[in-house]
Amino acid sequence: MIKSEGVEIKVNKVGKDDPILVIQLGGYVDQANCHLLQVVIDRCLSEQYYMIIFDVHQLVYMSSAGWGVMIGEIKRFREKGGDIKLANMDPAIYEIYQMLEFYHMISEYASVESALQAFECFEVNKVGNNITSNITNYHLQKEFVIKYKILSEKPILILLFEVRGFIDIEDNIKLKKLFTTCIQNGFYNIIIDLSNLVYMVTPGWGTIISNIKYFRKKGGDVKVINMRVEIRNVYKIMKLYNIFTEYVSLQHALNSFYNKINLNQSGYKTDHEKKVTSSHLHFKYDVAISFAGEDREIAEQLATGLIEKGIKVFYDAYETVELWGKNLYDHFSFVFNKEARFCVMLISKNYTRKVWPNHERVNAQARALIENDEYILPIRIDNTWVPGLPDTIGYISLFDKSIGDIIDLIEKKLSI
User: Fold this and answer.
1) pLDDT tens string 164-213
2) pLDDT digits (tens, 9 = 90+) for 64-85
3) How far apart, in whole angstroms, are the C-alpha atoms of residue 34 and residue 11?
4) 265-284: b or e for each residue (b if 16 or more CB lie within 10 Å)?
5) What confidence tens digit (pLDDT) does each residue in 23-69 have?
6) Residue 152: left if φ>0, alpha if ψ -120 to 50, beta else—which one?
7) Please, is 180 exposed, middle or buried when counting C-beta atoms within 10 Å of its C-beta (0-12, 13-18, 19+)?
8) Nearest to 297 by CA among 244, 232, 249
9) SS3 state of residue 203
């Protein structure tokens, strides 16, 4: 038994011929103590126990580091004809499991008995070294592959990495070597396409983050595009948006590189920046985005795209330090009434039900009433009616416009 640093791990052996280990996890598994989980897993493999059930009914919390250790090692067990299964999830743990779509990679059961029965079926279905389990087949079709190509040489050298599959602990070593090769050859401007990435262990994120910091010191950067939903969920939970931004498309990422090199070399500014700085300098933000939490994914894509066009955006997730310790009621009143040239309002059934969006709306409407001018730019996510906004006002709808289209329209609006 291991009991240390907030986590308790007990190991019990079931069966004789092909013993199954039931590992009870209790307490908290986080960045500080996940190495203890790694020690237990390594010992299982060294002692040739390849069928593992994690009983997590006493587990209070598991960070992404803990999930990374557990899921990152599944490949080693399956290569030996075994597997890892989960049993007795607490509702809070199960919610994370579902939200991050870990069910694609690791099976969960209502009880240890159910997991044991699944292993019995698992044994019957073995044919040589081929496992007929759907989970295993899914995994084997998602082997880690990374390709690269040069996108641009003038005025700036940019490399595109296309990452596919599942990055576990072993594959993270390959990722590190690839970054090292770039550094050795003076390539400091990288775009990583994650559209086909299934899962990445925490050390993989660490590799990207550490290289971002290094490349920025060299005047370059690492930019990430096209995250799948489950990858973006990890990105949000780990609050990686405080370190780097996801770009909505390859073109937006390229533009951000080009804009940077133009500004650095010649003080060049885009047409939008020239117009905004000459006639609207007194506004802190070009656009303030008002939205309900349920619509954050749309708001974030919109904010990211606008920022990459050089547009100053108020989006709460990018204002963590600014908002820390403030009276948010007063601060949001000031932002939506005084500090933005336009208020972009994401209208949905969730928007009208929530306290904070309605607070922002009231202040935006007060500003529009006083100035008697265009200030609120409504974007419809659905057909919900919003108090105080007449049906005759001009709307943009996500039914017939993409996020990219809306970003372009906002840029044109700011240039008027």
Assistant:
1) 887 877 788 888 888 888 888 888 889 999 888 877 877 788 888 888 87
2) 778 888 887 888 898 888 899 9
3) 16
4) eeeeebebbeebeeeeeeee
5) 999 998 887 888 889 899 999 999 999 999 999 999 988 887 788 88
6) beta
7) exposed
8) 232
9) helix
How many Cβ atoms are within 10 Å of 362's Cβ, its own excluded? 15
Contact by Cβ (8 Å): 231, 253? no
Give the tokens for residue 70.
């557990």
CA distance 53 to 34: 17
Cβ–Cβ < 8 Å for 105, 138: yes
pTM: 0.39
Specify the pairing of strand 20-29 against strand 7-14: antiparallel
Long-range CB contacts for residues 218-223, cutoff 8 Å, separation at least 24: 218/188, 219/188, 219/264, 220/187, 220/188, 220/189, 220/190, 221/188, 221/189, 221/190, 221/257, 221/260, 222/190, 222/191, 222/192, 223/190, 223/191, 223/192, 223/247, 223/253, 223/256, 223/257
In sequence order, which residues have a C-beta less than 8 Å from that of residue 8 and are 6 or more positions away? 1, 2, 24, 25, 26, 27, 58
pLDDT per residue as tens digits for the range 248-297:
778 878 887 877 655 444 443 444 443 433 344 457 889 999 999 889 98
Bridge partners, 22 (sequence order): 12, 53
Residue 156 φ then ψ, to 5°: -145, 135
Q: Helix H segments across 224-375?
A: 229-237, 250-266, 271-279, 296-307, 320-323, 328-334, 349-353, 355-371
- Token pair in block for residue 209: 């983050």
Cα torsion angle, 378, 382, 388, 390, sign: positive
Query: Has residue 132 got a pLDDT over 90?
Result: no
**What is the gyration radius of the CA atoms in the chain, in angstroms?**
25
How far apart CA 257 and CA 244 sit, in angstroms, is: 14
Cα separations in angstroms, 7 against 40, 66, 86, 119, 146:
12, 11, 17, 27, 36
Mean pLDDT score, 126-152: 46
3-state secondary structure of 361: helix
State how far the Cα of 405 lies from the Cα of 398, in Å rounded to an integer.
10
CA torsion 96→52→68→169, rounded to 10°?
-160
**At 243, is the secondary structure helix, strand, or coil?**
coil
Distance CA 401, CA 414 (A): 18
